[in-house]
Specification:
By secondary structure, the chain is α+β, with helices and mostly antiparallel strands. The chain is built from 29 helices and 16 strands. It has 3 domains: about 200 residues, Aldehyde ferredoxin oxidoreductase, N-terminal domain (Aldehyde Ferredoxin Oxidoreductase,  A, domain 1, 4-Layer Sandwich), CATH 3.60.9; about 190 residues, Aldehyde Ferredoxin Oxidoreductase Protein, subunit A, domain 2, CATH 1.10.569; about 200 residues, Aldehyde Ferredoxin Oxidoreductase Protein, subunit A, domain 3.
Length: about 650
């Protein structure tokens, strides 16, 4: 048995019912290190160009990393890749919790799924064995109901379940894949891909713990993490979770409000992380009980996950569906002009119950609210639902209607860009999408290099695909670990900031390949630094890696994602931001008057292409770059790609 990984990749053909186990060699694992990069190897090899994302031919890969399931914070993550039904580009989504570690314990590093079952099924993985089982009795159940049913059916309370809810079954284009009834592989509609295959769930249980090459070095890292929990600020992060940044974002003028028309929300005190902590975490009456309102992922000491429960009023929720993250508070809150925390908690619970991405769901509703405010949507369109900003009742109602594809919800279930194409009447002017995916709650008008990454990111705008602008100056010693030693002024969009954007994008890309948590490992405020990523891989695998090799893994993964898009005919024309960011200045707060300059932004984009060695005309990776990364086979095996680069 190798160090770290199991050496087993399960291939599932749902059309034929065939299950096969592949045993890749060590070079394969070192080349990709797991996660997104490893999954892309299979997607590029086995998905035909031009497929419908909801067809049986769309191959889906779900992969852990070479350090997953080792007993240290921040390693229990899994990445899902397939062609996205939301964007038509490559889809990529990460999730945490306990399922990733349990998948490794069950004897598998990853699962590659193709075809479509004639009837609903689930995949049962246990101690190195795999079998498909009927899931007709589970179809239509919420995530909590499904998990309870499977634990009873398999007579094991310790199984871990990765599943879709009714939204995935209904092919909502931003449907998520859910584990623990509250952890989401949320972005890019991977739940709809799983639903199109009639694969209800993957269930894992096992005891095959990964072997660690250098246990002494590994234990030193464990101790370092415990010692640094308070000095790095992670103790604060664990206490308030991601909602802790809600108020600071508002103060900086970077909290998206009224569908990105402002960076400040007048009722911020009603939706900030401190209020969530003090008033809504399960058992909030005292500090001791409050710790019971925090959940964690496998072997993680940070405990940043929120646990909320509402037992009274119109927005009652069960604690099994967790609590809202910052992005969820923003999209269902300030994006929509809503200050009712109970309604936000309920909308979050509905997304976890039905299996939907909270960012795309909340942002799509916010887009509809702006269209209503501008008179481009009326009660005739919505079936009588009032979509005025601040209408919490309508927001919660629409969230459920989207999941069930009921009434106006069926149009919004297509995502805001496709909904705008259906409705017309100038509604497209209010979109906040990149490549068809709704933007998360960090604003390109105040984080300008992040805006470039939003545009060029292969699967649409993503806030965890690079470091945020302010970190260059704030964390100089950690930035030096990855060769960044020339911090720039705030709002700079020059050559050095493009280098900062590219280098940190490569690092975060490597983090998604190693399947690490970007809240625990990274180049700035995280518990473990970039150097600790190197130390962890060395300790677990025994490989003599350095930071350059780690960054190269990230660059390789990024170019594979871009190559998939290039093969689909998607290039520079898709690397842009919503029109409103260039045409409408922000109003109110510290960012009042901020607007992007088109010429400056385009010049920065071209500099980014130059640094990446991608074509400035087409945006496609060069053949030279792909070959230098060991990806010549991607061109050779894809005639469509060979014709465009």
């Amino acid at each position: 048995m190798p160090n770290g990984y199991t050496g087993n990749i399960l291939h599932v053909n749902l059309t034929t019912g065939e299950l096969a186990i592949e045993h890749p060699d060590e070079a394969f694992y070192r080349n990709y290190m797991g996660g997104s990069a490893m999954g892309m190897h299979y997607v590029l090899k086995e998905t035909p160009p031009g497929v419908d994302p909801l067809s049986p031919e769309n191959v889906m890969a779900l992969c852990t990393g070479v350090v997953t399931a080792t007993p240290i914070a921040g390693q229990s993550r899994i990445t899902t890749v397939a062609k996205s039904p939301l964007t038509g580009c490559i889809g990529d989504s990460q999730g945490g919790g306990f399922f990733p570690a349990e998948l490794k314990f069950s004897g598998f590093d990853g699962v590659v799924v193709k075809g479509r079952s004639a009837e609903p099924v689930y995949l049962w993985l246990h101690n190195g064995e795999a079998e498909l089982r009927q899931a007709g009795h589970l179809w239509g159940l919420t995530t909590g109901e499904t998990e309870d049913q499977l634990k009873e059916e398999l007579d094991d309370k310790r199984i871990e379940v990765l599943q879709i809810g009714p939204a995935g079954e209904n092919l909502v284009r931003f449907a998520a894949i859910i584990s623990m009834s509250n952890r989401a592989n949320g972005r890019t509609g991977m739940g709809a891909v799983m639903g199109s295959k009639q694969l209800k769930a993957i269930v894992a249980r096992g005891k095959q713990k990964p072997r660690i090459a250098d246990s002494a070095s590994f234990k030193r890292l464990q101790k370092l993490g415990k010692a640094d929990l308070s000095p790095t600020g992670m103790e604060f992060f664990g206490k308030y979770g991601t909602p802790g940044v809600t108020a600071p974002q508002h103060q900086a003028g970077g909290l998206p409000t009224y569908n990105f028309n402002s960076g400040a929300f007048d009722q911020i005190e009603e939706i900030d992380g401190e209020r969530l902590y003090n008033n809504y975490l399960r058992g909030h009456e005292s500090d001791e009980q409050n710790r019971k309102g925090r959940d964690t992922c496998f072997s993680c000491m940070v405990k940043c996950k929120r646990v909320t429960e509402l037992t009274e009023g119109p927005y009652q929720t069960d604690e099994k569906y967790g609590g809202p993250e910052y992005e969820t508070i923003a999209t269902f809150g300030s994006y929509c002009g809503i200050s009712e925390m109970e309604a936000i908690i309920r909308a979050n619970a509905l997304c976890n119950m039905y299996g939907m991405d909270t960012i795309s769901c909340g942002a799509t509703i916010a887009w509809a609210m702006e269209c209503w405010a501008e008179g481009k949507l009326t009660a005739k369109d919505t079936g009588g639902i009032d979509l005025g900003y601040g209408n919490a009742e309508s927001m919660v109602l629409l969230t459920k209607m989207i999941a069930e594809r009921e009434g106006f919800g069926a149009i919004l279930a297509e995502g805001s860009q496709k909904a705008a194409e259906t409705i017309g009447r100038g509604t497209e002017e209010h979109l906040i999408t990149c490549k068809g995916q709704e933007m998360p709650a960090h604003m390109p008008q105040v984080k300008r290099s992040l805006g470039i990454i939003y545009a060029v990111n292969p699967f649409g705008a993503d806030h965890e695909s690079s470091e945020h602008d302010e970190s260059y100056k704030a964390y100089p010693k950690r930035m030096e670990e990855i060769g960044l030693a020339n911090p720039q002024p705030k709002l700079a969009l020059n050559k050095e900031m493009m280098r900062f954007a590219m280098v940190t994008q490569h690092l975060y890309s490597a983090i998604d390949s190693l399947s690490l948590c970007a809240f625990v490992f990274g180049p700035s405020w995280q518990l473990f630094s970039s150097g600790s990523i190197v130390d962890l891989v060395r300790a677990v695998t025994g490989w003599d890696v350095d930071i350059e090799e780690i960054l190269k893994v990230g660059e390789r993964r990024l170019n594979m994602l871009r190559a998939f898009n290039s093969r689909e005919g998607i290039g520079r024309e898709a690397d842009t931001l919503p029109r409103k960011l260039f045409s409408r200045p922000l109003e109110g707060g510290k960012s009042d008057g901020h607007i992007l300059d088109r010429d400056e932004w385009e010049a920065a984009l071209e500099e980014y292409y130059r640094l990446c060695k991608w074509s400035a005309e087409s945006g496609h990776p060069s053949r030279e770059k792909l070959e230098a990364l060991g990806l010549g086979w991607v061109v050779t095996e894809n005639e469509t790609l060979a014709g465009v680069i």
